[in-house]
Each structure stands twice: as C-alpha cells, then as structure tokens.
Design goal:
Three copies of one chain form a homotrimer.
Chain A lengths: L7 E5 L9 E5 L2 E7 L5 E5 L13 E3 L2 E3 L6 E2 L5 E3 L15 E2 L1 E4 L2 E5 L24 E9 L3 H8 L5 H4 L7 H4 L2 E7 L2 E11 L3 H11 L6 E10 L3 E10 L8 E13 L2 E10 L6 H30 L16 H20 L14
Antiparallel strand pairs in A: 1-11, 2-3, 3-4, 4-9, 5-6, 6-7, 7-8, 10-11, 12-18, 13-14, 14-15, 15-16, 16-17, 17-18
Helix pairs in contact in A: 1-6
Protein name (chains A, B, C): Aromatic ring-hydroxylating dioxygenase subunit alpha
Pfam families (chains A, B, C): Rieske, VanA_C
Organism (chains A, B, C): Paraburkholderia metrosideri
C-alpha cells in the first residue's frame, strides 16, 4: 500500500506488549509482538519460514516465540534457535524478519523500512505527554475502518467540527474566526482562533465545574500540527477574552495513526488536560467523550466516505477546494512529496505482505 | 453495468420521498432523494464534491441538502448555495449531479442518461392503476438479489408458474393451452389462454368468496406485456367458459424493475383487482400472497440461478430453447438491440459509479 | 483449480446419496447426486441447460431429477426426458453433464476428468475398512476451509503431532525416533518408530481400559501412506517393547480428501481399531476425539496458514526444509509431477466451473 516506510510509526502502547503474543497488521504486513524477560519489546514477521503458520498462535518460551505447528523457536532477532524434531537441525534459512522496535516517550515505535536507516533520533516527542508536564493524560486505542489519509484530513481540519461535532465541540465563532497555516520543521500547523466568542459546550461545562460561573465572552483556540507520516498534536483551549492564554483551560492532545491496510488504520490517542489534574473520575468522562466523538461522529462518516471513494485516488476526483481546506491540502501535498521522494531515493525493501521468509 | 440509460426508470414510490433524505443506488449510481417544500421531488448524486461524503447522512434545510461533513448545502439543481466556514466562499466546481425526476401516474420516474433527452412524454402509463379505473390496487416494494434481466425473464414467462407456484397460481390446463406473442408499439405481449379448465387455486378461492360455488369449467388467461427498459404489465383472470371475459374475475398488475447493480434490483409492484374493490381486509391477503410468491418462490430461485451464472453472459451459455421461451427470448433480443443502438448512437454520458463531481 | 482430474476422488459416503438431491462442489464444479430405484448412484452437473437453475432444488421423480424452475426432467445419463410445457418438445441440447460415479469399498468414487479414461480398476482399496478385517471402523465427514494440499502436508507429517496434538496424541520419544520413507507402487509411506518409549496419552488410556495396568516401556509406531490424488492410510499403534507388533493395540485409518475449491476441501475419515471391537459406546468417544483433534487443533491452524499464504504458491515462498519434512516434500514433488504429466498428456476436458451445458 502507499505509505512511507523509512519512518517511525506507533506500533502499540507499551502495556499491549507482554508475554502473550500480540498480533497486529501494519502497512499490510502481519507482525507479532512480545516482550523479552529483560523488558525489551520485539517485533517479528508473523509467519513461520518453515510451513508458514502464524507465530502469534504459539507461545513465548524463554525469550523466544514457539511456532504452533512444529515447535520451531525464534529469538528476538528472528533466528530459529530450536527444533524439537529428529536431530534438531535448523537450516540457516529458518529466519523471520525482525523489525526495529523502540519504546520511547510512552509509546512503542516501529520502523517498517530499511533497518539500516532506523535512527531513534527521528522519533517525534510529545512533551505534554510526559510526567511533570502539568498535563494529565487519558489515552486510548481505536481500530478504524478508514484509510489513514482520510483520518489525517479529518484531524487537521477544524471546519468539520461545526457540523460533525455540533453538540459538544462546535463553536460558531471559530468557524468564522482567524485561520493561520505555519511550517514548523517538517511539520505543518493549522491554527484557528476566535476572540470574544461563546465557547464549545464541553469547555463551558468544564469551566463551570472547575472555576465556576462566568459572564464574559471568551477566546477559543484550536490548533493541529501534523508531522509525517501521520502524527497529529493539538492544542485546544479557552480563556476569558483579553487574559493571557496560559491561565486558560486547555487540552494538549495527540492523535497518532498507523496504516493497517488501504481501508483501515490503528489510532492511538491521548487527551491531556491542565485542569482537574487530580480528578480520577473525570478520566472516565474524557475517555467516553473522546470515543463518542470519534466512533459515533467521525468514524461513521469516514467509513461512508471511504466506501464512496471505492479505491479512487483523491485528486483524481477533482475535489472542490475551500478556504478552510488550505491546511489539509498542504498536508496532502507534503505527504505526496515525501512518498515520491522515498520511492525515488531508496531501492525497494522486501515488504511483501505477510512474507517473512529470508532466503 | 449493462442497462439502458436514455429511458425512464421507476426510482421510488412518491411516499418514499419526503424531507428525510432517501438513499438508493440505481444502475450502480448512488443517488439521494428529497422533496422540496413546493412538493417537487429531487434526485442528486449522493457524494459531496468537496470531500466526498455521502449527502444522505445530512439533513434537509430550506429546500437544500446539507452535507454531513462540512455543512455545504446543495439545492435541487445540485448547486452549492451555502458554506458555513470562514468567508463562506463557494467555488463553481462545488456542484453535484442532478437527475431529471418526474412524479407521474403514482410513481416517481428518473432519467439516468443524457438530461437533454429526457422527454416526459416517453413515460409509460398504466391506466388500470389510476383512480376511476374500477381496479383496486395493492402495492409494494421489494429489494431483489438478482439481475433485472433474470427478473424480466421470469415475469414474461408463464411456463414457470406450473412448477414454481405449484400451490396457488398453477393451472395445468394453461401449461398446455394456447400461446400467442404480439408486438404492441415498443412492447411485446406474451399471452396464454386455456379454455374449459380448472382455475388456479387462488382464483377458485376468490370466485367462491365473491360469487359463490360454481360447477362449470372455466377459461383462464395470463398475459404479460413487456415495455423497455424493464416494465411489465399483466392481465390474469378467469371466467366461466363461454362467457365474455369482461364479466370475469381479473387482476391487472404491474411489475416495474429498476437495476441496482449487476446482481440486484429494485422491484415496484401493484396488483389491481376488479372484485371486492371495497374490501380493505383483502388487501392484507393480497400483499401477503404476492410477497410469498415472489420472495419465497421466485426470488430464492433467481438468486440461486444468478449464483450459477457467476457473471457469465446468458447467450454464451448456449441455453436450450423451448417453445415456451419464445416470448422471453423476443424480449431478450429486443433489449439487446436497444442496448446496442444506445451505445452506437450516443456519446458516453458520465456514469462513473457514485461519482458526481462536475469539473 | 490445480488438481488432478483423470483420477478417482471420494464424492460421498453411500448413505449421503438417496432420493433427496445432494449438492456438493468438487474441484470447483457444482454437482448434484441422487440414487436411482435400482440403487445406482448418479452424479450430474447441478445446472439446468435451459435457464441455468440449480437442479438440487428440484425433486427426484421416477429416476429423474426435476428442474425446480420449469419442470424439465433429466435421467441418470443427463438427458432431458420430459418437458411439461405446451407441446412437450425437448431439444437435443437439453442435456447436463453426467459424471462416472462408482460405489465401491464402502465409498462413492467420482471421476472428474475424461469419462473415457474412467477405469474402476484404478480405485484404491482399504482392506482394513472391509468387514471381516478384524478392525471396527468409526467414520465421519468434515468440511474444511483449507486447500487439500495443506491437508495432505499435515496428514503425512508426524512431526506436528508433538506440538499441535500435545495433549492426547503426542509422544516425545517418537519425535526423536526413527523416520523411514518408502515407495509403494504409486504411493509413498512415511514411517516413524520409537522403541522403549512412553506411549501417547490416548494409547495409555486405551491399554489400561482394555488390558489393564502395565509397567514396562512400549514401542510406538505411526505410519502414513499417501496415494494420489489425496488419499492417506495410516497405522498407529503401541505394543510392549520387544513383543511382536501383531499383538499390540492399533488403529488403521484413512483420511480421504477431495478438493472443493482453492481454499476448501471435503474430508472423509475412518478410524478402525483392533481392540474393544464390540464396544458400541467407545465409538462415540473415538468420533469425539477425532473431531476434536482435527477441528480444534489441525483445522484452525490450517485455516490460519491458508490465510497467511494468501494464494501464493508453496515453493515460491522458499520454505525452510527440515529432516522431518522429507516425506511431505516427496509427496508434494510427486503431486507436482502428476499434475504436469496430466496437463501435458491430455487435451483439456470441459471443466468450466458449474457449467454443465453440453452443446
């Protein structure tokens, strides 16, 4: 499928990878994850090179994964280290692909391309997600039946909020507020700002809960930053008009998308708030609200849109372009540029779906 | 898909089109229907030209349909007339396809081809379906998992009744009765007539209910007329042998089929009787009996047949031809001729499935 | 699909074929089976040559099968012998394909290729399955969602037993025992033998039930013989070490596989034991145990493996080869050789899936 390969993607939350094999398909490749006794997480191709059984159905034995068909065992580097049958001989071809996998910043990152290019320094940081940032995170995972690029379109696009999230997140003032697009390293900021407005219902509720009634107009901001391949960080907040933004209510969020197939994606999200940071009970509401907004409002639409596209390429459809699309269009153009550059620069990497046999 | 385009099809019953969007796929094109406040029904391509969301998930606002993603509103001609975001500018490319749609004779008719050729005078009339005809109608809609041509084969074919509808509609006398094929304008009549026979069980029951016992043999007729593209009208009735047909029990019916896809169809039917025309309760039985005969008897067979064909063309299968097939074969040949003529005469119309973006 | 055609396959158990039509797809061809009043079983193409309805939905009338659509009746040779409509004329093209079908040795065998080559002398015999053999059979049928060649790989492969059937059938001594491969006519034996070992749990249980406690080590053997196209016979047994095998506990089994499609198979099995041959109740346990081992253990793995292969050819995947694979690899190579020979030697037979119309 069309997706960058020589770049870090989120593969899993660290808590998902343990001593029970985790099966996940990323960029159409079937991968099995497990954790070694020293804590190192491992990602291997999920297909035994002997008779092609899926390794995730086997079990973890002494830092190896045992094939469920004939009991061959593979270590974290993908080498077969044990064969229980007859003389126990293991041919050199009995190897599965091993993927660079790094646990960093509270996420497990995987490199799907040429392993020799996997530089951990390229992993994107989210400072607000780290302890001591003053922001309390709520996190989640969703499996989404939509291509990752429609998800990115949606996540950098503030203009859909007025309609799709009309009940809790919409702010008519923001729809007609000020839009700014900014480059930031290899990222793109899409910012909207409204002065003297009525805040979205969710922020009105939160302000009244944590700070009490108010009778002045507010400022409201919603800012999304895209980093390649498909990583979004966000600031959304409100403050009484005229006061500095720092004292306002704000969430800093990330929405990290990893392609599964042409029509489905993995979605890792965190909503981090600077208010009621000691309130455990509020976490439950934040999770419920986030899942409601995404699953009930965005995803149903993205799935229907995906079905409408029926495999056709976005630009071939000659989309009508609006002023509110400038950010999303820049992200699409930059993604197209990176994809073309990767295809031009690198010899093909063996990325045959679900094949892991090393000749 | 292979179907005539420059011709009127039934799109919906008038009662189906109101101020809640109706989504329906016709000839593999996704269409959304709604009714304007002046009563005019509207048919638009069901895909927003901005980000390709399906419009039917939106709502009707002041004679426009609002896209569920970004709130663009389209009028009955398919023009975008409102954008709620930022400066509200609307590019000229923000248009969806609008289909000619006419409410006439108790049906909503749509023109799937070149709109400049859409002549309302070409719509087929069914006089027996109009008030004052002396016939009381019962109507219904069925979604059928079979190609429209197998349905037409079935509907002009009396010979299957003996086997498929062996319980209520079969008449052994008719199976060996007289068959007549007649051209009628662009239509084809397939008629069967049996003298001095035992009527089908359903007519026997109806006669006894409405006229009492009888001990003489009867005449029975079953006549189907095809009009292109896939419209069937029917006369079926019984009368005591030797008496004029006019005084008999008769139903005049239509079976109007509109292709949905290669393997599915929309089916609009009416059974109109000249007996017990004031009996509301009988309508329930007529509907139940019609649905039983079609859903339980015909459709299960047509679906299985469709599966057997597995996409192969009918004539390529070298069907064995029987005398009882003459009518159905003439209808197939005439349909083939009209399809070839349309392909030869007209430049291609933009009929890309579910695409409605106008450049 | 890729499968031998000029060879006998098992089509059904004799008890499956009676006067209710049996529908079964073999090598991607839809076939209907029924039994004539003289006891002869019949196999016909399951598609009427008139309007292509599936014949299995019809009924058996006087040694013919009646089409459920228009009532044409076909005899055991596939000739149409009756048309109930109009003048009753039947064109010579109204014929369906008839397949050679032979009931022999307690099985119904079908020939899918050129009928002129169908020599009953080529049918494989299983003497242990015949009455008087001293072995009591338990039989069954399973529909399997895996290609027949993965099933054969599995059935001639003793090395998977240690892992997949770890609970009841595994024997660590056998895993490291002696392996022998032998040619036997057009068949291939794959044998394993372990001396002085602990028997599999199932044999331990059976020995204690039927012969009482024992405190000496045992010998254990497991031998599978493949015959083309996909027929496996097996000997598995135990005996006290040093005593002749004849006095031991043994089952002689067959596992007869017939391709349905690229991804599914029919599986006819028999487990025949030389102990407790008068114990009816034990049959229930044998059936349950066999279905557990195959459905819960083997099939789930084969289905997952099939999905992993995703249509790719086995050798193109460059499988790592182990010493324990020698038998399965010889069977694969011999099957490849027979397939190539058949393709080279014979003109193509009309085997269009589900087509049975004879021009």
């Amino acid at each position: 499928m069309e997706a960058l390969r020589n770049i870090w993607y989120v593969a899993a939350w660290p808590s998902e990878i343990g001593t029970t094999p985790l099966r996940r398909t990323l960029l159409e490749e079937q991968i099995v994850f497990f954790r070694q006794t020293d804590g190192t997480p491992v990602a291997l191709g999920n297909i035994c090179p002997h008779r092609f059984a899926p390794l995730h159905r086997g079990k973890i034995v002494e830092d190896t994964i045992e094939c469920p068909y004939h009991g061959l065992r593979f270590n974290g580097q993908g080498h077969c280290v044990f064969n229980p049958d007859l003389n126990g001989a293991v041919p050199a071809t009995a190897r599965v692909r091993s993927y660079p996998l790094v646990e960093r910043g509270g996420l497990c990152w995987i490199w799907m391309g040429d392993p020799t290019l996997a530089d951990e320094g390229l992993i994107v940081d989210f400072p607000f997600f780290q302890s001591g940032s003053g922001y309390r995170p709520v996190t989640g995972y969703l499996h989404v039946r939509a291509n990752y690029r429609y998800m990115i379109d949606n996540l950098v696009d503030v203009s859909h909020v007025l309609i799709v999230h009309h009940d809790m997140l919409a702010c008519p003032g923001l729809a007609t507020g000020k839009q700014t697009i900014e480059r930031d390293g290899n990222g793109i900021w899409v910012k909207r700002f409204a002065e003297q407005t009525t805040p979205p219902k969710i922020f009105d509720m939160m302000w009244r809960r944590s700070r009490g009634d108010y009778d002045a107009p507010m400022d409201h901001w919603a800012e999304s930053k895209w980093n390649p391949p498909s990583l979004i960080s966000q600031n959304t907040g409100v403050q009484l008009s005229g006061l500095p933004r720092d004292g306002g209510l704000e969430t800093k969020n990330f929405h990290l998308v990893t392609p599964e197939s042409e029509t489905s994606s993995h979605y890792f999200w965190a909503i981090c708030r600077n208010f009621e940071t000691d309130n455990d009970a509020l976490d439950v509401d934040v999770r419920a609200g986030t899942e409601y907004a995404f699953v009930e409002q965005d995803e149903k639409l993205l799935e229907a849109l995906q079905e409408n596209m029926n495999g056709r390429e976005f630009w071939s459809m000659k989309p009508a372009l609006l002023v509110g699309d400038v950010g999303a269009v820049q992200v699409r153009r930059e993604t197209d540029r990176l994809l073309a550059a990767e295809q031009a620069a690198h010899a093909p990497v063996p990325v045959n779906p679900s094949s892991s046999a090393v000749a």
